[in-house]
Amino acid sequence: MSARLATRLVAKPWGRADLPPPFTGLSPDRIGEVWFEPPPALDQLLVKYIFTSEPLSVQVHPADDQTLAAGQGRQGKEECWLVIDAEPGARLGIGLREPASPAQLRAAALDGSIEDLLEWHPVAAGDFFYIPANTVHAIGGGISLVEVQQNSDITYRLYDYGRPRELHLDAGLAVAQGVPHPASCRRQVPGEGSAQLVDGPLFRLDRLAGQPAAEVLARYGEAPVLAIPLRGTATIGDEAIAAGECGVAGSLADLAVPGDALVLIAQPIG
Predict the structure, then answer these.
(1) Helix, strand or coil, per DSSP, at residue 153
(2) Which helix (H) or strand (E) holds 256?
(3) Is residue 18 exposed (0-12), middle (13-18) or buried (19+ Cβ within 10 Å)?
(4) Which candidate in 16, 91, 106, 157 is catalytic?
(5) Alpha-carbon separation of residue 228 from 56, 129, 240, 249 (angstroms)
(6) Are 120 and 7 in contact (CB under 8 A)?
(7) Distance, CA of 48 to CA of 25 (rounded, Å)
(8) 184-226: per-residue pLDDT in tens?
């Protein structure tokens, strides 16, 4: 069985026809997302690239306890973003500038002023954000990023800039927290070197520059891991996984990362 995961190109009205390398020339459509099909051994996580030419909707995702209570199973969605490229002026809206009640959020979603309630962060390559479930958020135009998320497709749109798509105000406001985004959930990752990005509660995520240290091997243990090369090529067994691809290794010890490569590794917890 191949260690390389199957790739799915997802066309979006806000996507791009001119994807950057190594995705150049994959499709004539406006591609907004490149998905890697989760393997059975790691079906709790989904990895994707997102490319935007226009802003995405203002949205929110539920947590596991909320979807379980609603009879939907464990379908919560926490996610994180690593920006790999951004045009001048590009920004991400995450959380609110000031606390707001559900009634205030509803009124702002209906008249469009919810854009003004969001806290907008100017972004550049290397910016990293963890997005807890229940966080109101939006991705602006001109951004390329890698997203690692719980494998759930439940998204509640609160506002969509007048696009003719369904909104989910009642469901979204039932789970949205009208609060600022914690500063501890965002950082700038240096351009080189290894870095621990997430360590729970739902998954762990590291960036490797070369072979993992003993401490990283111990944290990831003997369980399977996803490997997402950002630069260079990693090897799982005798199979090369290049930048723009994603592979699954039986354990971190089965992954070889040369010193000139940068590779994200991800693993669910629990």
Answers:
(1) coil
(2) strand 255-256
(3) exposed
(4) 157
(5) 24, 17, 12, 11
(6) no
(7) 18
(8) 999 999 999 999 999 999 999 999 999 999 999 999 999 999 9
Amino acid found at 83: V
Task: Report yes or no: 190 and 126 within 8 Å, Cβ to Cβ.
Answer: yes
In DSSP terms, which residues pair with 256 in a beta bridge? 235
Residue located via tokens 């260079």: 232
Looking at the DSSP bridge assignments, the partners of residue 36 are 7, 47
Active site residue 106: no
Q: pLDDT of 216-261, one tens digit each?
A: 999 999 999 999 999 999 999 999 999 999 999 999 999 999 999 9
Asked whether the bond before 22 is cis by omega within 30 degrees of 0, the reply is yes
Please give the model's pTM, rounded to 2 decimal places: 0.96
Query: What is d(CA 83, CA 182) in angstroms, rounded to the nearest whole number?
Result: 18
C-alpha distances in Å from residue 66, one per residue of 112, 152, 171, 236, 268:
27, 13, 11, 37, 19
Question: What gap in Å lies between CA 63 and CA 15, rounded to an integer?
Answer: 27
Tokens of 143: 């951004």
Residues near 25 by Cβ (< 8 Å), separated by ≥ 6? none
How far is 209 from 64, CA to CA, in rounded Å? 33
> Measured on CA atoms in the order 86, 258, 24, 164, is the torsion positive or negative?
negative
CA 176 – CA 168 distance, rounded (Å): 11
- DSSP letter assigned to residue 114: H
Q: Which residues contact 177 (CB under 8 A, 6 or more apart)?
A: 134, 135, 136
